[in-house]
Amino acid sequence: MQKIALLVAALGLAGLAGCENYQTSAAERTVGGALAGAVIADATGGSKTQGALIGAVAGGVSCGVPGLPACR
User: Keywords assigned by UniProt (predicted)?
Assistant: First the structure.
């Protein structure tokens, strides 16, 4: 069951990565990161709360990372 959740999350993220002209805001990336972090933590047996927190921080700061699409 855990492998299925991780696979679904990976496929969802891969699908969004293929959107070339899709721009997100910092808030959308923060929420998406929190969701992905919670799903991955649950699938790997970690704390969903801690995974969501780490994912939210990573998603929020991803707007300023060189090489990633800029936020709108």
Answer: Signal
